[in-house]
Amino acid sequence: MGRVFVDVWNVTSKPLNVMEGLAFVTQPSNGAESLFVGAVREFNQGKSVLGVSYDVFEPLARQSFADICKEAQEKWGEALSLYVVHGKGRLKVGGISVVIAVGSPHRDEAFKASRYLIEQIKHRSPVWKLEHYTDGDSEWTQGCELCTDEDQVKEHHHYE
Amino acid sequence: MEITIQCFGLFRSFGEQIKLSIAEGDRISDMRKALLDKLQQMDASFNKLDLLGSARFASETEILQESMPLKEGMAIAIIPPVSGG
What we know:
Distance between the termini of chain B: 38 Å
CATH class of chain A: Alpha Beta
Number of domains of chain A: 1
Largest sheet of chain B: 4 strands, mixed
Helix content of chain A: 25-40%
Strand content of chain B: 15-25%
Number of helices of chain B: 2
Number of helices of chain A: 4
CATH superfamily of chain A: Molybdopterin biosynthesis MoaE subunit
Mean pLDDT of chain A: 96
Number of domains of chain B: 1
CATH architecture of chain B: Roll
Shape of chain A: globular
Order of helices and strands of chain A: EHEEEHEEHEEH
Mean pLDDT of chain B: 95
Radius of gyration of chain B: 12 Å
Strand content of chain A: 35-45%
CATH topology of chain B: Ubiquitin-like (UB roll)
Order of helices and strands of chain B: EEHHEE
Oligomer: heterodimer
Radius of gyration of chain A: 16 Å
Largest interface: A-B, 30 and 21 residues
Helix content of chain B: 10-25%
Number of strands of chain B: 4
Largest sheet of chain A: 8 strands, mixed
Low-confidence stretches of chain A: none
Strand order of the largest sheet of chain B: 2-1-4-3
CATH architecture of chain A: Alpha-Beta Complex
Number of strands of chain A: 8
């Protein structure tokens, strides 16, 4: 039986920790660990970005992460260990906004579950980005209408 | 009766939360009009009707159905389109 950890951290006081994610999902029964790290990109839609402030409705975000992890275990086996931490607060370019780690007996499940977790989180978790630009302007990114389940996510095709 | 809307994302410009007066028995779907009126009272230039239309409403544990009746004193969150990751 795998282990699951989900949380939201305020990045100004507690930066996300890639190695902690990897360590959490590492178990002797695994043949694979997969890691996804989301970071702030320096350009978005032609604009030069200084940083991003992440706004999160924390209790519902944690609930959505837990729901999505449970679905991944139902799809690819209860042996999966899963770690999801999303950042809240302001990050500079290159700052880590989300860490997803998956531990699994075999690599195929580790890759698939990792992709599933990030795509579902992007459409189903209450998180918003306020981008800060080098010209001094700030703007909330357009976002995607909230989906409530995997079927709705399949109808949206954003894989940027 | 009065309910509280907790603001997120673009709606943060209206503050942490908004107190909203609605009619007894109103459902989430009925409340959107009262919320639009309130937002336009607070900021006459607010015209993002499509954003309000695509927003969902939620408790701390789930997304609420549009048909859910609201109760006096309820606190719910407005969930505009999301962009996590």
